[in-house]
Amino acid sequence: MTTDVARPRSETALEELLSRPSPDDVAAAGGLEGDLVVLGCGGKMGPSLVRLARRALDAAGRPGRVLAVSRFSEPGLADRLAADHITVIRADLLDPAAVQALPDAPHVILMAGHKFGSTRDPAQTWATNVLLPADAARRYAASRIVAFSTGNVYPLTPVGGGGPTEGDPVGPVGEYAQSALARERVLAHLSRRNGTPLAILRLNYAVEPRYGVLRDLADRVRAGRPVPLAMGHVNVIWQRDANSVAFRALARCAVPPFVLNVTGPETVAVRDLAERFGRRWGVTPTFDGTEADTALLSNAARCRELFGPLGTSVEQMVTLVADWVAAGGASLGKPTRFEEREGNF
Questions:
Q1: Three-class SS of residue 343?
Q2: Can you say whether the dihedral through the CA atoms of 130, 135, 141, 146 is positive or negative?
Q3: Contact 263, 235 (CB under 8 A)
């Protein structure tokens, strides 16, 4: 992948940057025939993913539609996506009849999930993370499906170990992580039963200037609030890079499922990230607690081997987020709670 680190000054410019397809994306689009359905695209990553897919298909000269399916609770989002030549379908994906009524498509990306509030409403979490994907997999049994999962399916592991690989044992902590693993298991079962080519992407953590671990840290440093250190190390990946992997993973779908950790190559210290922001602003960060010797990490060596090096380094991510925050750029107002070690979201 290649990187353009031009610093966006507006949300329109940021959306353009986040959805700009790489040459690899365009090449992947050239191999796709037919429509792409993205289920649950109204969240943090979905709008930029469907825009990236649309732009990649256009650049490759492919006429297939990109169909964005969501309840679209954010005002104006559906209209903005439609203006970008994306086919918008309003649907409650927890309604099996609504899922069954969706258009046919040979390619599907399943993004729907529920994390925050899972401790308060575990029933909603399990319904969204297990029942909904099962209904989608049955509806699109004849399609290729890329399904988002999470690195939370792994246990906390030693910081110096580089994180678990796809072949290491899972060990989900908390209702959200347990339901995410259940989603994987149910999808794998249906993939084998119905012969559905499937890719499962264990993602952590995607970032962009309005949301993510880096935005959380930047806000704390900027406001002079203590940075929690208990979860002292993280992996991060630029959102566009994560979406690029998801789009290109359509060609990797398989039976049994293709499982991939999707994150950056570095184990990054939270303290170091906070100090990078502080140096940019002439601020000395304050900290709360000390770093544990374990963290929620993933080893993404296989991702780099198959999809190449990421286009955006940690330093570039910090620069983009720092400039955005310093300029008063918008926030989605959704803290990641990356510091949570007990799985309570």
A1: coil
A2: negative
A3: yes
What does the DSSP 8-state code read for residue 147? E
290-317 per-position pLDDT tens digit: 999 999 999 999 999 999 998 899 999 9
Cα–Cα distance measured from residue 88 to residue 94, given in angstroms and rounded to the nearest whole number: 18
Nearest Cα neighbor of 187 from 115, 137, 129 is 137
Domains, in order of start, for the chain: 11-216+236-267+297-313 (3.40.50.720)
Residues in the chain: 345
Q: pTM here? A: 0.95
Q: DSSP letters of 282-321? A: T----EES---SEE-----HHHHHHH-S-SS-HHHHHHHH
268, β-bridge pairs: 234
Is 36 in a helix, a strand, or coil? Answer: strand
What is the C-alpha to C-alpha distance for residues 316 and 188, in angstroms, rounded to an integer?
Answer: 36
According to DSSP, residue 251 is labeled G
Decide: helix, strand or coil at residue 158: strand
